[in-house]
Amino acid sequence: MFAAYGDCVTHHTRHTVGCRSAFRAAVHLGGLVHEMVKGANIGLAALSENIGSVVVSLGWSSPTGEGDADVSVLLLDADGKVRSDVDFCFYNNPVAGEGSVQLLGKTPTADGDEDRISFDLDAVPAEVDKVVVAASRYGGSRFGELDGLRLTLADSAGDGLVRFAVQDVDEVSALIFGELYRRAGEWKFRAVGQGYASGLAGLATDYGVDIDDDAEQSGAEAEGPGPDAVDSGPDAGERPATGPDGEERPARVPAQSRDGGAADRAAAKPAAGPAGAGAPPAPAVPAPAASAPVPKPARRPRTAKKKVTLPRTARKSLADNDTWRTARLFPVSALKSDRERETRATSVVLSVMAQVPEFGRRLTAGFGAPAGRMETFTEVALAHGETPRRPDGVIRVERAGKLWTALVETKTNGNGLRADQVQAYMDIAARRGYEAVITLSNDVALEGSPLVDVRIDRRRKHKVALWHLSWAEVVHQAQMLIRHEGVGNAAHAWLLQELLQYLQHENSGCHGFQNMGAAWVPVRRGIDEETLCQGDARALEVIENWERLVRQVCLRLGGELGQKVLPVQRARRGSDPGARRTELADRLCEQGRLNAEIRIEGTPGVLGITADLRTGKLRTSIEIPAEGTGYPLARAKRLVRRLSDAPADLHIETLVDGCGAGPRGTLERLRPEPADLLPKDGAQITGFRLSLFKGMGNGRGSAETGFIRSVDDAVDRFHAQVLTHVEAPAL
Predict the structure, then answer these.
(1) Which pLDDT does position 471 carry in this prediction?
(2) Per-residue confidence band for 113, with pLDDT thresholds at 50, 70 and 90
(3) Sign of CA dihedral 536, 537, 542, 547
(4) Are 154 and 160 in contact (CB under 8 A)?
(5) Strands 465-470 and 436-441
(6) Which of 450, 485, 452 is nearest to 577 (CA)?
(7) Is residue 459 over pLDDT 70?
(8) Closest by CA position to 344, among listed 408, 412, 395, 396
(9) Best label site of 22, 257, 281, 384, fewest CB within 10 Å?
(10) Can you tell me the distance from the alpha carbon of 201 to that of 197, in angstroms, rounded to the nearest whole number?
(11) Percentage of the chain with pLDDT > 70?
(12) Over 70: is that where the pLDDT of 263 sits?
């Protein structure tokens, strides 16, 4: 898991990898996690034996819930420069260094977001002496607007080794958090904390990345494409990339192919070293004749051969009628029992992981697996006392003659993980020197709330990491690859499509989180009868399941859109997730409402979801700023005009400075009279709140009348019918 959207929620039974309170109190080999200060350095071998692969996490929080930054990594040679532009790992090139560096994407934490990067240090090319870890912001934003800037580093077992809190970076838009570098054959880490007011362009140029020149580029565009321009089909050309907040990214990134490789470098300029030492003199070029026309500079190609993605709309079927069913590689019609579903689902997923390298790497990089040849196995018998144990699957990755091994325990439908089974696999893995145990089920792991409690024998020298993966995350990664990011060839795309068809079939048992739990009905009844008291454990269970549902909504929507969709966590820096959920449970008992916020890349605000258990209604809403020029009436007219295709029952509320809410009404009533949105007292308009209401299901499951289905439908309707009309930045 995983670059997008990442996604994704993992859990380690001893410490949750990330930058929550576990990093402040985690114990590693009998010592505390090393708190670094700016300029300090430390050898990784002195901290852990499991540093063949490490995960670096960059974290921050935003007071508004909307601030974000993009992570980048530069691989440098002995001269402190990139060998070529492919050593610049960023949002358009998420894998570098022959697979040794991979951006895993974002995951929400208790006090903000966290961007994770996987480093297979054993596989970093020998020519690379240093790896710089940085991040950048766009649209005039500065790092001083974010809180809790920090870097954390964990080993392949998930144990936290290093934490570095970055300070005093108010006016910078690009920031180097730290460096991994070689000394005497060993890897060390240095806490840097250096900022660049010139942004990512200034940072990258310092390290020799060949940046597109804006003026040069615009001039080339005015003349049209040159003879060497690459035509990559209907999607070719220079589409501007957008940042996490919807801002257009400047045209200053190196030309990259979608598979992470470099594009045609015929027009690229080699980056000079600090003094140009060692560079052979350029051959003399005869001056062109005075009468000869000076050729126009060719436009830099932006893409090489595109990766394969499948079209959203299928071709017309050749079937005679709707009763004919397409033959599938992974059939589901013969599945009769949960055991059959578990066995087949495990085999299907593991086989596709082994055959589609992009997919297998996505699902294992976050668990500390190296980038290498992967093989997968099912129903393997392993000795354990008098009775051998049979884990559902085994994953093995080979890199440079070393093996990384993980045992897999799978559950489908509503079946929960059994602590005794997982405990046995943890013991077996520890005795055999395996690196991890991975659990896979419909449940969603929460930070600080383990799905399975297992006993850790700290006397053992070898440590085993316990991770959890939900079926919703597997579906998300498959969707991201075949619909948005692409895979190596058509056969791989077809395999992922068959996997997706299987997992999404109602008979597969791999449906994701689909039950609000036994406490759902009693809590709703208690709120309705006003008998639910603060401190009731059932309310806490509902809060945890609500958080699971919101995270799954983010995974599903992100996979469909191909964008980062993350839940917003508005919590104090360093707050404990358990204490935060207890506070929310008490608020549920008092107010009778469940609240959540979702940030969708490219939208101008945060999507709010409120489930009012007293009235039985769901509210989806967004607040958009009233920016731009013109008189207030002109702004109101523009808003109503842009919402011409939105539902007539859309509620629009004017937000005014200092007074909170202003005039409000439905779109149906406001269409002929936009002036009704203007405050009567002439107060300054700061924005508008757009809301849709619908009844919510009563059942705890995901049936047609269930609560989970109603939440999915409400979010989908709001995005399709409202957000798509307000994605323009200004009103």
Answers:
(1) 95
(2) confident
(3) positive
(4) yes
(5) parallel
(6) 450
(7) no
(8) 412
(9) 281
(10) 10
(11) 78
(12) no
